[in-house]
Each structure stands twice: as structure tokens, then as C-alpha cells.
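Example 3.2
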Amino acid sequence: MTAVLLLSFVFLLALGIPVAFVLGLTPLAAMAVRGETPLVLLAQRIFTGIDNPILMAVPFFILAGNLMSRGSMTMRLVAFCSAIVGGIRGGLAYINIAVSMVFAGISGAAVADTSAVGSVLIPAMKRDGYPPDFSAALTATSSTIGPVIPPSIPFIVYGVLAEVSIASLFLAGIVPGLLLGLFQAGVVKHSSRRMGFPRASRPGLKETVRSTRDAALVLVMPVLIVGGILSGVFTPTEAGCVAVFYAMFIGLFVYKDLKIKDIPAILLETGLTSSLVLLVIGTASIFSWLLASEEVPRVIAETMLSFTDSKVVILLLVNFVLLVIGTFMETTASLIILTPVLLPLMVEIGVDPLHFGVIIVLNLVIGLTTPPVGVCLFVACSISRMRLESVSRAIVPFLLASIAVLIICTFWSGLVTAIPEWFGYRVLAAS
């Protein structure tokens, strides 16, 4: 049955059928071959897959990101970051990275980041003389910081699957997220010298104070969300509710650029996105359950350990597999299918589940910008009106920088686990 499950999955995916439907149809074929499994289990497994209160945080964080992108909050972040890093060569490129890092502390979704930041900064970078393909590549890559710096929707999904504390995963993502931003800035610095990017205008003290004041309430938002979760004041789901209330309050009553008439459209957009995510979670849970029932995780662990017991070799192989799968599959679906399969192997070779959570999420978010089917890549191409081939060439240095961060975080586990340990979270396995 395992062969039928995997072959039908690859075949349907190759036909271009949406992942959510592939994950629902594939188990049907496998269960038809097995015969004795009642089809009612399909509905039961879908319901079981999404029947977790923590997953309620997902639509709330999506809604918070949508509320932010509709108002002037993104523009205020851009003005604030311009005041901080203005006056240096390639300033707008650095601003792009900085805004994405702040936005990451609010929405936790890469595609939302690409859309919100790209719609503002890609046209601005074009006007300042930056190559359009470079602007699109940078925006797509910087948006991948979103699912790594807390709060993070992929970390929430992984935490539910691996039964790892969501707060500890959020803490573990801080250093890798900062490293992604730092390495991307390194690529920008090199490109600025090579391509002769313009210097951003340096704002005066008065303008700096004004932009800081205007963005102050937006900057409080990630501190409120992450600080509230880490201090135990509220759960991730409650944090999502707080984020929505806060974004709606300052948009409607403080900045007054969000109108009541805009709310239904924002709710509809959020509902469509959330329903797609939850449908993927539900159908992927069937696929994952069938793999577990066929003891695929045990077989994979035994097979790999029979070839080599080298932790380094196994981690390199797992990273390669995850990078390839992340290129072709949606992040949430990949997490739900691969976490139960690979986690037992990781524990067997001494990798802590917390550490592996960061490894798998880093791999999959890199896939969001990897040609030919990276979702963030398509969004950036759409905004910049550039051909995929051109942006794909421009994104190569950024991909190499992201992979360098992945390798560092894979083999230097202390970078990932240090902050969670400082906050009292125990690392269960030697990594």
C-alpha cells in the first residue's frame, strides 16, 4: 500500500492538482487497495487533524497581517526603517530587510510579508534605480524571515505535531531569523559595491523623531505578541486574538486609515486563506496517518542507519531531501507529512526535537523562494512584473546565503537552543 500511496501522490502532484486535493485523493487510492479500511476514517482523520485549539492561532495571525497590510502600518514601518538605516549605499535594500524582520514579529507568514512589503518597496526601489529583478529577489528572500522570527505559523504547526512547546520554538527561531537578516544584508553590501546602488537620503533629526513617533504603536505590536507568549500572560491562540484587536484598534481609531467598510473584504480574504491552510492540515493528517500505520518512519530510520550511523551524513541527507521537497510542496503540508516520518530518526541520532523544528522550518521556507515553483518568488514576480527566469538568476546569491545559515544552524545546535535554555526549557537530547 505504501507504494500506491507514494506513486499516486507523485502522479497527481505532477498533473498540477492542488496539494490539498492531492493529499485527500491519494489516501483514497491507497485505502481502495487495502480494502478493509472504512472510508468513514477519512472524514474522522480530517477532523482529528484540525481539532486542536492551538491551530486557532493560525487564522488570527493571518488576519492580523491582513489588517496591517491594508492600512498605513507598512508605510510607517518603511519610514521608521529609512530613518534608522538611511544615508548608506543601498539603503532601500537594507530597509527592505529591516521592514521584513519587523513584519515577521506580527504575521508569521512569508507570503503575507512578500505582498505587504513588496507592494511598497519594489516600486520605490525601481524609482531609485535598483534593478527590478534584484528588488523582487530581495523582497522574496527577506520575506522568508517571517516564518522564522516569532510568531511563526510553521512553528505552531510543528509544535502541535511534535508535541514541543510553542514558546520554546519561538525562542529557538530568534537567532536563526537574525542570522538570515544579517546574511542577506551581506549579499546587499556586496551587490551595492558591484552594481553601484544609490545612497538613500539621510533624514534629519526632526524627521527621525517624527517617523519613530508615527511607527511607535506598530513597533509595540511584536513586543506585545512575543513578550506576552514568552512571559506566560497568554497562549499563542490568545496572542493571535490580541494581535487582531490591537491592529484593528490602531487602524480604526488611532491612525484612522482602516475603514469599517474594509473589514468584510479583509475577513473574507482571511477566511479563504485560513480555510486553505486548515484543509491542507486536515488532508495531510490522513496521509501522515497512513504512513505511520504502514510503519514508514521506522523503516526509513532503520534503512538510513543501516547505511551510515554518522550524524553529519544523515543531517546532510535530510537537509537535501527537505530542500527539494520544500521547493515543490506547500510548507504546512510538508511539515505534517515529514515531521512524523523524520522526527524518530532525528531523535535516534541525538537531535533534539526543538533543534529539528528549526532545521525543518528553515529548509521549507528556503523552498518558498527556490525556482521554479517558490510561492514567494511568484508573488514578487507578479508585483515587479518581471519574468521568473530573470528573478531566478538574481535570487541565487540570496539562496546561497540562506543555505549557509541553514548549515550553521544544523551543525551548531547551541545557536538554536541557547535562548530556550536560558528561559528554562530543557533540551531533552544531546544535539
